[in-house]
Design a protein that fits this description.
This protein has 228 residues and is an alpha/beta fold. It folds into two domains: 168 residues, Rossmann fold (3-Layer(aba) Sandwich); 49 residues. 47% of the residues lie in helices and 23% in strands. It has ten helices and seven strands. The protein has a seven-stranded mixed β-sheet, sandwiched between helices. The structure holds S-adenosylmethionine. S-adenosylmethionine binds next to strand 2, strand 4 and helix 4.
């Protein structure tokens, strides 16, 4: 089974020989890949959507891994219990705020695992902040580019971060800044370029013309209103 570069990188971060819960598993590619490559003992693949979980069930059956990878339909961590003895929770490919909500609602489970592997699609700064506020220490934080898109993968364990991050470290990741990451450099250059275009467009828009345009529209709309 060939994983995308992003999924491969997520799989690479998992500490070997544990029991994993993949929340929002969809196709279940990560647990299947990890099990087939002897990286984990077993897995629980969870999803809130019946359709997604069916994809997972079909793929798990295709590789005949039903005894090794369980599937559970549910919201976030609600179907995971302490008796599952999860070592690693993986949550990838969803928004950061949803991820925070899942960790918050399932905090009893999240506080009893060895590591979190998170790949938030947005609000990444808020995820880093949440981890620090909830006694998780970020031990790995990598940005990568796959098929033209930038992704960040964060690995965290229980523990207090002694030196809280500066604002820019929450936004871009402390390790990437310290490591002078080429990908981060490219990403920031790309963002600055886009912001400069937006700024230029704003500056070039003549406010008076825009006001006149809106006034004329209101006039026209009122005229139509009279006929109704
Ligand atoms: C874009 S897919 C990501 C799949 C896979 N984790 C990956 O990174 O390629 C997001 C999946 O998360 C599931 N999902 C969304 N909200 C969820 C929640 N609250 N609990 C569990 N799964 C959820 C969706 O049904 C969908 O299958």
């Amino acid at each position: 089974m060939d994983l995308s570069y992003r999924l491969n990188k997520i799989a690479e971060k998992v500490t070997i020989n544990g029991i994993i819960a993949d929340i929002g598993t969809d196709h279940a590619y990560i647990p299947i890949f990890l099990y087939k490559n002897n990286k984990i003992k077993s897995a629980i693949a969870c999803d809130i959507s019946k359709g997604s979980l069916q994809k997972a069930i079909d793929n798990i059956s295709k590789y005949n891994l039903q005894d090794n990878i369980q599937t559970r339909l549910g919201n976030g961590l609600e179907k995971i219990t302490l008796q599952d003895n999860i070592d690693t929770i993986i949550i990838a490919g969803m928004g950061g705020m949803l991820m925070i909500d899942i960790l918050e609602k399932g905090n009893i489970i999240a506080n009893n695992i060895k590591e979190l592997i998170l790949q938030p699609q947005k609000d990444i700064d808020k995820v880093r902040q949440y981890l620090h506020n909830n006694n998780f220490k970020i031990i790995d934080d990598e940005m990568l580019k796959d098929e033209g898109k930038y992704y960040t993968i964060i690995k965290a364990i229980k523990g207090k971060e002694e030196n809280l991050y500066k604002k820019e470290e929450y936004i871009f990741g402390k390790f990437e800044i310290e490591n002078k990451s080429e990908i981060l450099k490219e990403y920031i250059e790309d963002q600055v370029y886009k912001m400069e275009i937006v700024l230029k467009n704003i500056k070039e828009t003549n406010i008076q013309t825009r006001i006149l345009e809106i006034e004329n529209n209101i006039k026209m709309y009122r005229e139509v209103l009279k006929c109704l």
